[in-house]
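Possible regression after last week's pipeline update?

I re-ran a chain I had predicted before the update to compare outputs. Posting the input and the new output here so someone can diff against the archived version. Not blocking, just want to make sure nothing changed silently.
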Amino acid sequence: MEVTVERQGEVAAVITLAGRLDLVSAAAAKRGITDAVAQGARRLVVDLHRVTFIDSSGLSSLVAALKAARQAGGDLRIARPNEQALVILQMTTLDRVLTPFPTVEEALRGYDGQQSDAGNRDLPGRR
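New output (post-update):
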């Protein structure tokens, strides 16, 4: 699992994950995201466009990272999930708390109050 953190101003960060987000890599992903929170990033966007597969361990790491962000007074959003990730989020109803957005830019804009909570309406498979 490759984890890249790119700061966006003082309190925001885009975290790009690459590879499989599964039992083997979930701890590394969680650590990368929570480290960003520890360094002051409270508004997080996790870019999943390079993630090829997500299982329950991967989802758990995202939920734990969301909890860390919220405890710091922030939030975590998902950007550019592939079809498999989106189906998993929808099947588990985690798309209600890990809001998926079609682009990183839209997820970041949502933090500025420029977008409603319906940021995921343009994603494939959304009704």
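Follow-up from reviewer: compared with the archived run. Residues 114-121 have pLDDT under 50 and may be disordered. Marking as no regression found.
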